[in-house]
Design goal:
Length: 211
C-alpha cells in the first residue's frame, strides 16, 4: 500500500443535496426536524462524507479498523451547497503488527471552513486468524453528561443503509463470514454511525443543527 503522506490531498467536491442528506438521516435513524427547518446538513453528514471519499482514495485492505475520530465544527453546511474536501495524511506509524494511518480532513462550503475531521485507521499487517477470539476491554464507568440519552437498536439493515449513505463499505460492518475471522468475532457497527447518535443527542439538547 503506497500512500503520499505528509502532504495535503485534494479529494474533490460534492453537493450537499436534499436527497443525500435525507438518505444519511434515514440511515442514522435521526428523525429530528431541526435540519429541515434550518436548511442545514448535520455535521456528521459532512464528516462521514469526507471519510467515505478518503477511504475510497486510500483503497485500504479489507478489515482496516477505524479506531479514533475527532470532529470540530466551524460553520454549518447549507443543504444544496457545494462542498470541497481535502486531507492531510500524517506519516504512518507501526506498532504490534498494526499500521496507524492518521488523516485530517478539511471540509469547506464556498470559501468557508465548515468542519475539521481527524481520523485514525488501523491496518493489520497480518492475515486475521480463523475464529480469532474477541478481545474484551475493561468496563469503563459511565460518564454523566446531563443530556437526554439516545437509545438505538442497530440492525444489519441499518448498517447496510449507512454503508451506502456514507461510502464506508468495510466488510467488518457488512460481511458476517469475514467479520467472524477477525478479533471482533462478528460484525461491528460503523464508529461514525454511533458518533451520529451523539450528534443527534447534542442537537436535540441544544437546538442547533450543526453541533
Amino acid at each position: 500500500m503506497l500512500l503520499e503522506t505528509e502532504q495535503t490531498l485534494e479529494l474533490g467536491a460534492y453537493k450537499a443535496t436534499q436527497d443525500s442528506v435525507d438518505e444519511y438521516l434515514r440511515s442514522t435513524s435521526d428523525a429530528l426536524p431541526i435540519y429541515g427547518q434550518a436548511g442545514l446538513a448535520p455535521p456528521l453528514y459532512s464528516a462521514a462524507s469526507a471519510l467515505g471519499i478518503l477511504l475510497r482514495k486510500l483503497a485500504l485492505p479489507p478489515g482496516a479498523i477505524h479506531s479514533l475520530q475527532e470532529v470540530e465544527t466551524h460553520s454549518p453546511v447549507a443543504i444544496g451547497s457545494d462542498v470541497a474536501v481535502s486531507a492531510y495524511l500524517e506519516k504512518p506509524r507501526r506498532r504490534g503488527g498494526l499500521e496507524f494511518i492518521t488523516s485530517v480532513c478539511t471540509v469547506t462550503s464556498g470559501s468557508t471552513k465548515s468542519l475539521t475531521s481527524k481520523s485514525t485507521v488501523l491496518v493489520p499487517s497480518e492475515t486475521p486468524r480463523e475464529g480469532a477470539a474477541r478481545e474484551e476491554s475493561a468496563a469503563e464507568s459511565a460518564v454523566e453528561s446531563g443530556l437526554t440519552p439516545v437509545a438505538k437498536a442497530i440492525t444489519q439493515e441499518q448498517l447496510n443503509a449507512y454503508a451506502v449513505a456514507s461510502g464506508d463499505d468495510n466488510p467488518l460492518h457488512l460481511d458476517a463470514e469475514f467479520a467472524t475471522k477477525t478479533q471482533f468475532g462478528g460484525i461491528i457497527a460503523h464508529g461514525m454511525l454511533t458518533l451520529a447518535f451523539i450528534s443527534e443527542m447534542m442537537a436535540h439538547a441544544h437546538g442547533r443543527a450543526w453541533l
